[in-house]
Amino acid sequence: MISSRDLSILNVMEPIVSHLFEDNYVKTGALKCACDKCQLDIILLTLNHLTPHYTSSQAGEAYIKAHYLEPQLQSDVLREITNAVKVIEEHPNH
């Protein structure tokens, strides 16, 4: 594996999921439990059900984020977040 301080690997789906989750569930108060553990579990479960999109550059990150501005792709991510919310609310890990 290549290792360098100048190189980093980013799954661009992480900030996309985090922002959509924050805007649609956390800020609206739509969660039964809004503790940090439940929020993290929802994000992790969502990410496990989405295809990762890795990049090592800011240009790649910008390209992938721009791609996810399409309404259908945002809808797909929100669907997975909603499924994860249901699972975690039914079976909280705390």
How would you portray this structure in words?
By secondary structure, the protein is mainly alpha-helical. It has one domain. It is 61% helix and 4% strand. The protein has four helices and two strands. A two-stranded antiparallel sheet has the order 1-2. The chain starts with 9 loop residues before the first strand and ends with a helix. The mean pLDDT is 91.
Task: List the uncertain runs.
Answer: none
> Biggest sheet: strands, sense, closure?
2 strands, antiparallel
| Major sheet strand order | 1-2
Shape: globular
What is the helix content? 55-70%
Mean pLDDT level: 91
SSE blueprint and pairings:
Elements: E1 10-11, H1 13-26, H2 36-48, E2 54-55, H3 58-67, H4 71-90
Antiparallel strand pairs: 1-2
Please outline what is shown here.
This protein is 61% helix and 4% strand. The protein is mainly alpha-helical and 94 residues long. It comes from Cohnella abietis.
Fill in the keyword field for this structure:
single chain; 94 residues; mainly alpha; two-stranded antiparallel sheet; globular; ComFB; Competence protein ComFB
